Amino acid sequence: MFAACGGTLAAPADVSVDLENTLTWSAVTNASAYTVEISTLDGSKLIDLVKEETSVNTYSFDSRRTTVELSNSNRFTLNEGDYIIKIKAQAIPIGRSSILSTKNTKPAVSTCL
After folding, report:
1. Between the N and C ends of the chain, which has fewer C-beta atoms within 10 Å?
2. What is the pTM of this model?
3. Contacts of 45 by beta carbon, 8 Å cutoff, 6+ apart
4. Strand duo 76-77 + 58-63: pairing
5. How crowded is residue 84: how many other Cβ atoms within 10 Å of its Cβ?
6. Neighbouring C-alpha atoms within 13 Å toward the C-beta of 9
7. CB 25 within 8 A of CB 98
8. Which residue from 98, 95, 88 is spatially nearest to 38, judged by alpha carbons?
């Protein structure tokens, strides 16, 4: 919950990935952005296209929306498998944030390079 003078925000709820590999969650009151963190359940590597790294343990990015397309992203590549997705609500001023929501999920189909 958000407090007037520096409290924390609620954790994003209703985190899900649909059959089209669209990640969604419920908006958090007073959130201005969200930090999304994706890692594999088995510890295998992810491919980060922005940093041009062949593999990373965890991919993290910010979004102002409550919907993120996981297939055919220009930021990262996810292969078919099990993932841990964590989302944190962020607020202005910087420093106010929620606890992480966590969702273990498996994308419906493999992504294409």
Report:
1. C
2. 0.70
3. 54, 55, 56, 57
4. unpaired
5. 14
6. 27
7. no
8. 88
